[in-house]
Design brief:
Radius of gyration: 16 Å
Number of domains: 1
Number of helices: 2
Largest sheet: 14 strands, antiparallel
CATH class: Mainly Beta
Shape: globular
CATH architecture: Clam
Distance between the termini: 17 Å
């Protein structure tokens, strides 16, 4: 979830975040830069109620792979300078995940293929709303608006750690500006001298009520 949300939650502080206030573009540029520099090979799982879905998480710079079993499925996220792409990896090569599949849930959980694509990091309509704390961490709060109706979210609120550039929380809103999904980093862990995500909570909310309909966790293991 950031990570991308899914990967790093703390990195070396950048001069950008010592300035007050940076532009939304500068913040997002730095988040993308941090995320595209990771080198990892870890085990993880998606957990929702009694269902546990293990996966292997591998990253080599801007290429991130999620490998599932039973049945086998490998997803590859490409983080570019101007856009990201999500592909399904097969023996014959790679196949782009289409718009219809981006809306689909992964193995019956509330996490969708689109949630793993991080398209919102590239949306051009973004602004800084101010500063806010998430779990004692001081963050920049950003609002990002989708450039088209193809996205599962019409706009996104994003909390970025001021000291590290890590993604701490994301809220996705539907076409009626109702909150429908929330991602939040719960805990982190140190592996080989670097900080990584340990647990992220994902909540699906009933539009208009903010009532949690379902809750899942994304967890990374050593």
């Amino acid at each position: 979830m950031r990570p991308t949300f899914v990967i790093a939650v703390a990195c070396a502080a950048l001069p950008l975040f010592a300035q007050s206030p940076p532009s939304a573009k500068d913040i997002l540029d730095s988040v993308r830069m941090i995320e595209s520099r990771q080198q990892i090979d870890l085990q993880g799982q998606l957990r929702q109620n009694d269902v546990v879905i293990p996966f292997r998480l591998m990253q080599n710079g801007p290429l991130i792979r999620y490998s599932f079993t039973n049945p086998d499925e490998t997803l590859q996220l490409r983080l570019g300078e101007k856009s990201s792409g999500l592909d399904v990896v097969t023996d014959a090569g790679t196949e782009k995940v289409g718009l219809s599949k981006l809306q689909q849930q992964i193995r019956g959980t509330i996490v969708t293929y689109g949630d793993l694509a991080f398209k919102f990091l590239y949306w051009p309509a973004a602004r800084v709303l101010g500063e806010e704390s998430v779990r004692t961490r001081k963050c920049w709060k950003l609002q990002l608006r989708a450039p088209s109706h193809d996205s599962q979210y019409s706009n996104v609120l994003l909390w970025v750690d001021k000291a590290s550039g890590a993604l701490m929380r994301m809220e996705g809103y539907d076409g009626n500006a109702q909150l429908v999904k929330r991602f939040e980093v719960v805990s982190a862990q140190k592996i080989e001298g670097r900080w990584f995500l340990k647990q992220m909570r994902i909540e699906q909310l009933q539009p208009g009520t903010n009532r949690v309909q379902a809750r899942a966790y994304l967890e990374i293991k050593r």
